[in-house]
């Protein structure tokens, strides 16, 4: 276990590396819990503002319904194809709903910056288009874990089963 912890520290991203990674990536995997306890995972675009992950979800999705009942959430953003290239960030905490749901573009000072980030990153636009089907959830993480296997001096192969 001590070896695993030392390796974990070696491959952990610095805060600057983590911010750069979350800023450049587009897709995350969101895990929620249904009222009956069933876990649910789905893929979603996001924006990172340096302290919170902003999720723009369809309000008629299972993900949104789950979050309305239980706001606990875990999100993974990862990249890499080969074992030695794997990197990612896991964030967990409680989702907070921001703005009207569904979002129609009503003025909301709290959404100005995340909507600008999201529109630039995902649509190449300066202003967020609103379709009346999506709404915002913000995850200000309680816990963050990260990994970047590229930091290992000699890439290790995954154990054989």
Q: List the quaternary state of the chains.
A: single chain
Q: Helix amount, in percent? A: 25-40%
Mean pLDDT: 91
Query: How much strand?
Result: 25-35%
What is the distance, rounded to the nearest whole angstrom, between the alpha carbons of the first and last residues? 20 Å
Quick one: overall form?
globular
- CATH architecture term: Roll
CATH evolutionary superfamily: Electron Transport, Fmn-binding Protein, Chain A
CATH structural class: Mainly Beta
Radius of gyration from CA coordinates: 17 Å
Question: What's the helix-strand series?
Answer: HHEEEHEEHEE
What is the SS-derived class? Answer: alpha+beta
How many beta-strand runs? Answer: 7
What would you say this structure looks like, in words?
With 161 residues, this protein is α+β, with helices and mostly antiparallel strands. It has a single domain (2-151), classed as Roll (Pnp Oxidase, Chain A), CATH 2.30.110.10. The chain is built from 4 helices and 7 strands. It has a 6-stranded antiparallel barrel. Strand 1 (27-33) and strand 2 (39-48) form a beta hairpin. The two termini are 20 Å apart. The mean pLDDT is 91.
């Amino acid at each position: 276990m001590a070896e695993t912890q030392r390796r974990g520290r070696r491959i952990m991203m610095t805060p600057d590396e983590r911010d750069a990674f979350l800023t450049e990536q587009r897709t995350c995997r969101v895990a929620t819990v249904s009222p009956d306890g069933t876990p649910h995972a789905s893929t979603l675009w996001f924006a990172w503002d340096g302290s919170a992950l902003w999720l723009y979800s369809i309000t008629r999705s299972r993900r949104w319904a789950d979050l309305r009942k239980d706001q606990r959430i875990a999100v993974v953003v990862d990249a890499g194809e080969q074992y030695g290239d794997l990197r990612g960030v896991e964030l967990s905490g409680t989702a907070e709903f921001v703005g009207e749901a569904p979002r129609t573009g009503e003025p909301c000072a709290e959404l100005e910056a995340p909507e600008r980030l999201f529109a630039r990153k995902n649509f190449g636009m300066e202003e967020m288009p609103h379709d009346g089907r999506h709404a915002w959830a913000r995850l200000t993480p309680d816990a963050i874990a990260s990994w970047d296997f590229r930091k290992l001096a000699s890439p290790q192969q995954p154990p054989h089963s």
